[in-house]
Design goal:
Number of helices: 9
Order of helices and strands: EEHEHEHHEHEEHEEEEHEEHH
Oligomer: single chain
Helix content: 25-40%
Strand content: 25-35%
Distance between the termini: 13 Å
């Protein structure tokens, strides 16, 4: 296969691959035209590659576009697994909407920035003053119920299956992200959670993402998924995500 990547760090070790800087995409038209597959484009490149160059991409266009915005991601999850999404409100930042949030949620709750990752852009709102401060700095308010837990699951999908899964544990705060100090455990991963994530990934055509799943109240809650997830959980098990990527690429080419 003739492969082009826009992110060399995600594709180290994959054979037959040529690196193009994202900003040089239109200067490298011939390489793109000749490519069988374009890997890891940035969000702004996707429409040009798919609709203009007519190129297949990896991750899928659904992975990249849904993963880019928590709003679109949550709406997609509402469509395919509404019972597995925490109570969430997405509204504008007017005083009327702030009042609606106060009437609809009990303190504390979680507020998020629409585009963020690695546990950043997440706020623990304990009172009206903190809510107003969050609303003053955000045009769109993303509010989610707070479900108390000292851990969540990270389930990594590459291709059509979960290839790595682990608990992220943090007893000192409300963020379990490894980047925010969370610890990793590979013990006792619920197979039902794996099955749920694989079902949702297939329904949305997500083929490269780290799903964050909370286990509480006898239910699995999908908090979000990140297309460019961290690799520490792979490295601690001696796994190489690029090998799973190459396996998925070859399988996809065989299925066409």
């Amino acid at each position: 296969m003739n492969l082009v990547t826009f992110n060399p760090f995600r594709t180290i070790g994959i054979p037959g691959i040529d690196y193009i800087k994202p900003e040089a995409m239109f200067q490298e038209r011939q390489k793109i035209t000749n490519a069988d597959l374009c890997l890891f484009p940035e969000n702004w490149q996707v429409t040009s590659l798919v609709y203009g160059f007519k190129k297949p991409i990896f991750p899928s266009i659904e992975s990249i576009q849904l993963g880019y915005s928590k709003i679109e991601m949550t709406r997609a999850l509402w469509a395919v697994c509404p019972d597995n999404v925490p109570n969430t409100m997405i509204v504008g930042s007017s005083n009327a909407m702030v009042q609606k949030i106060i009437e609809s949620f009990s303190f504390p709750f979680i507020a998020k920035t629409v585009r963020s990752s690695m546990g950043q852009g997440v706020f623990f709102i304990e009172n009206e003053q903190q809510l107003h401060a969050y609303a003053d700095s955000h045009e769109v308010l993303y509010i989610q119920e707070y479900i108390e837990s000292d851990r969540d699951l990270r389930l990594c999908v590459i291709g059509d299956r979960v290839v790595n899964s682990y608990w992220r544990i943090n007893e000192s705060g409300f963020r379990n992200n490894i980047a925010q100090g969370g610890a990793i455990s590979f013990k006792a991963i619920p197979p039902e959670a794996v099955a749920l994530v694989e079902q949702v990934a297939r329904a949305l055509n997500i083929n490269h993402a780290g799903f964050d799943v909370l286990v509480a109240k006898n239910r699995f809650y999908i908090l979000e998924f990140n297309v460019l997830f961290g690799n520490q959980g792979f490295h601690e098990q001696g796994l190489h995500p690029e090998s799973f990527i190459y396996e998925a690429i070859k399988k996809s080419a065989t299925d066409i």
